[in-house]
């Protein structure tokens, strides 16, 4: 996926063919997708395992298509299905039974917070304005505090980062100057926004030189570019760079 992937456990909220009393009768209905595009699902008395492949279509976009086999009550069952993101916190898909019923479904991740729905907003400036609740995008202690609250709610620590500019040398920090191409781990968001023009984070350098530093967050990006955290930090950096 372009922004975030499908990996994880997704809890089914709606099914086209069956109501909640049925699909949650044994366990909370769910679809689990692994990083190798294998996975499993269970709803009602139906359970199965699948293996999928990603496909990109001009009209409907990118989705994972899979074949599955499993059980429907005590009978063997198999079929086909697909799944794709429909929002920052949700997926939609369809499970088809060979020679039988088909049902579309909607599912969400429990661990994704409702505040991430701002990422359904396509325009970056509008998205940032929704986060800081300020249309002018001004950077001040009030808007910094709102962005800080959003980061603390949605970026799980520790998280690995590196410099946006790999050739950049940060200010001398005691006897261990951190460099832009170093690898770091954010271990804490610093909460003082009253006397700062941007947010600072406490980071641990993962290179052999080591060291704990307090550095400006907007100078960093996540090392894993396929996560929602990467997009969150990218938006923050652009906001600071364009509005300070």
Mean pLDDT: 88
Beta strand count:
13
Q: Outline the biggest β-sheet.
A: 8 strands, antiparallel, barrel
Q: Which stretches of 5+ consecutive residues score pLDDT under 50?
A: none
Assign the structural class, choosing from mainly alpha, mainly beta, alpha/beta, alpha+beta, or little secondary structure.
alpha+beta
Q: Percent helix among the residues?
A: 10-25%
Strand order of the largest sheet: 1-2-3-4-5-6-7-8
Task: Give a description of the structure.
The protein has 244 residues and is of the alpha+beta class. The chain has 2 domains: 101 residues; 126 residues, no CATH class. It has 4 helices and 13 strands. The protein has an 8-stranded antiparallel beta barrel. It has a 5-stranded antiparallel sheet with strand order 12-11-10-9-13. β5 and β6 form a beta hairpin. The longest helix has 16 residues. The two termini are 32 Å apart.
């Amino acid at each position: 996926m372009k922004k975030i992937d499908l990996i994880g456990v997704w809890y089914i909220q709606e099914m086209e063919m069956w109501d909640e009393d049925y699909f949650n009768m044994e366990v909370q209905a769910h679809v689990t997708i692994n990083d190798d595009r294998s996975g499993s699902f269970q709803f009602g008395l139906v359970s199965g395992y699948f293996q999928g492949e990603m496909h990109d279509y001009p009209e409907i976009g990118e989705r994972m298509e899979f074949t599955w086999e499993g059980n429907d009550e005590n009978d063997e069952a198999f079929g086909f299905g697909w799944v794709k993101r429909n929002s920052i916190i949700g997926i939609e898909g369809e499970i088809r039974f060979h020679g039988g019923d088909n049902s579309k479904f909607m599912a969400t991740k429990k661990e994704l917070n409702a505040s991430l729905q701002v990422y359904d907003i396509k325009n970056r400036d509008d998205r940032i304005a929704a986060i800081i609740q300020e249309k002018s995008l001004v950077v001040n202690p009030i808007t910094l505090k709102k962005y800080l609250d959003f980061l603390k709610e949605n970026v799980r620590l520790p998280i690995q980062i590196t410099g946006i500019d790999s050739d950049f040398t940060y200010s001398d920090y005691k006897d261990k100057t951190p460099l832009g191409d170093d690898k770091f781990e954010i271990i804490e968001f610093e909460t003082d926004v009253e006397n700062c023009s941007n947010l600072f984070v406490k980071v641990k350098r993962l290179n052999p030189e080591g060291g704990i530093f307090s550095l400006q967050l907007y100078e960093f990006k996540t090392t894993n570019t396929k996560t929602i955290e990467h997009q969150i930090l990218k938006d923050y950096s652009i906001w600071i760079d364009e509005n300070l």
